[in-house]
From TrEMBL:
Residues 1-140 form the PPM-type phosphatase domain. The chain crosses the membrane at residues 193-211. InterPro entries: PPM-type-like_dom_sf (IPR036457), PPM-type_phosphatase-like_dom (IPR001932). It holds the Pfam family PP2C. The lineage of its organism: Bacteria, Thermotogati, Deinococcota, Deinococci, Thermales. Keywords: Membrane, Transmembrane, Transmembrane helix. It comes from Thermus tengchongensis. This is Serine/threonine-protein phosphatase. It comes from the Bacteria.
Length: 214
């Protein structure tokens, strides 16, 4: 699996495949930015399993999207405009599968990035560490540059909220729930053309009879 963070201040882009995770700590609130590509996570999103059931399900380690395991990997791409002091946590499921979100929040709030990463790894190992534990913590400075990028239009419109993007699209086509949807063009089918033609013939026949007179 892979979760990648690109900082292009004052913006961030996240590419995600698999069941590693990216979290954002902002103004005291911890938000999970990515969606797990796993069998149990998909069942949770479908309402077929509860989050508690997913943690102990026998198929909790089955991933549905990964690099190298499938002919093609589905890449989730997120973007957001950053705020001063934002903290990112990237981690494998060896951490997120063991520690509760409230524990992650407390450690990230009270320790600098390097110390927070060490403590999170240590806590995961203390709680059993059933899988590999990889952790990256990034804290942004209190002052961010003012800049603009070609891809940043939907990120600016979202006002700091994460925006789900699609690979290969032009910047003006990147989807965001904040921007107004484009109107649909008018489509004319062959039935419409035939109907219009009939109306033209009827009108022409009436006009011809009117001008000829009795």
């Amino acid at each position: 699996t892979a979760t990648c963070l690109v900082l292009d201040l004052p913006y961030a882009l996240i590419a995600h495949v698999g069941d590693s995770r990216a979290y954002l700590l902002r103004k005291g609130e911890l938000t999970l930015l990515t969606e797990d590509h796993s069998w149990v996570a998909e069942r949770v999103r479908q309402g077929l399993l509860s989050p508690e059931e997913a943690k102990t399900h026998r198929w909790r380690n089955v991933i549905t999207n990964a690099l190298g395991s499938f002919p093609q990997a589905r890449v989730d791409l997120l973007g957001l405009k950053l705020e001063p002091g934002d903290v990112f946590l990237l981690c494998t499921d060896g951490l997120s599968g063991v520690l509760e979100d409230r524990t992650l929040l407390e450690v990230l709030k009270h320790f600098p990035p390097e110390e927070a990463a060490r403590r999170l790894v240590a806590l995961a190992n203390e709680w059993g560490g059933p899988d590999n534990v990889s952790v990256v913590v990034v804290r942004l400075p209190e002052e961010l540059p003012r800049a603009s990028r070609p891809y940043a239009l939907p990120l600016e419109a979202a006002k700091g909220a994460p925006v789900r993007l699609k690979l290969g699209q032009e910047p003006e086509e990147l989807p965001t729930q904040v921007m107004e949807p484009k109107g649909r063009g008018i489509r004319v089918g062959w039935r419409d053309i035939l109907l219009i033609g009939l109306w033209v013939l009827v009108v022409a026949y009436i006009l011809l009879g009117y001008f000829k007179g009795p």
